[in-house]
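REQUEST FORM: STRUCTURE PREDICTION
Request ID: SP-0412
Submitted by: Lab K.M.
Chain count: 1
Length (residues): 447
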Amino acid sequence: MPSHPSPRKSRTALSLARVGRLRFSTLLTALLTVLLTVLLTVLLGPAQAEAAAGVLSTTPTANAVLSTAPTAVTIRLPPTAAAVSGHATVFSSAHEMIAEGQLQPTAGQPGVGSLPLRPQTPLTKGVYAVVWSAGGQSGTFAFDLEPGGVSPALVSGPKASATLGPLQDGVVAWIGWITLMIFVGAGALCLLVVGPVARSVSGELAARVTSRLTRLGAVALVLYVPAILLGLAHEASDSDGYDFGASWSGLFQSPSGTLDGLELILVALALALLGPALARSTSEPRRRLALIGATVSGGLALLATKFPTAVPADWPRTIFQTVMWFGHLLGGAIWIGGLVGLLACALPGAVPTGRRSAFWPSVIRRFSITAMSCVSALVLSGLWLYWVHIDGVRQLFTTLYGRVLAVKLLVFGCLLVIGAFNQFWLSPKLEALKAGGDEASTSRLLA
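STATUS: Completed
RESULT:
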């Protein structure tokens, strides 16, 4: 007769499992506490220096709307200040570094320093942010370049703040980012999490969930194509409209145009590879290979949006910042796109009722590990990007970049709460029910 483990051994195994989960939870809580402490230190530290800042004026004026591109950025501290010796960086609204370097002191004018603007490509319509530090002080301001006859004017308001562009511009940009991230995340979820678990359950289930996630990625990529074309046409236009002819002719004509063209080629390659992945006649190994190629192409297209477009003056800093951006984008894509993919798999038709108890606990456990890695990458890269772009908590509410970052932090916090619910309640509950053989309770919980 087959032997069965004694109740005492079963209880001991379950107790050891609970202790292991408790130690892991304690370690995770301690890690999150340390990260939160570091985040608060970084957030609150610069605010004190910011309060003591005594900048007299800047050129361009903070929140100015300009009709012609400026040739330099100038910082004017009080006349009592010593000769300016500092640093300034200019970013576009897409977080692309336009110029970076040391502030050059102005002869005969103590406290005045300038950074010449000599980008490889002319500045185009949009909002630009300047991050500077000089004489023991630092700050951030923005200006808006609006060619086409608009007279320079100061944006009035009770507080200094950069205004957002037209609503349709923001909607188009966000649709592009989100759809590409969903495509990459859904592909990574299928290859790293859902696919291996489904194949261990049954071949039919693997075909179902792979087809569901591949169709999700195809829809996301199809939505991305018009978004990127509209974005390029809007950037090429000298007005608030869309110039598709200029956008096409500008491809591969400059460093930024080359990256735009490369992004389009990679997206087209991903779409071409999705064809075999969706075809029912394709064998399982070839379907998986096509999905790998499409996901990698989409990931490279995502990274191309943050590749430097000019020869950097500081190679180590630029390389490190580019790596941080890559980690930020990939971590966000795999995490956010993975959550959307899990939601798609939870909809009716993907996982049959009789397979849920064998499928979902393992999927949630594997995705939790992947999500923790993504969150770590997002936190580390996010701290660095905050330190580069924002100088104090107040600028989260008084600058364009700060407001966008505040919204991203709010979304990140909501997703983190969902992840904590999964990590500390749902996943342990499912594991306990699965270990106890309570299939009915597991099915009710998953339903």
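NOTES: The chain has a mean pLDDT of 75.
Reviewed by: T.R.
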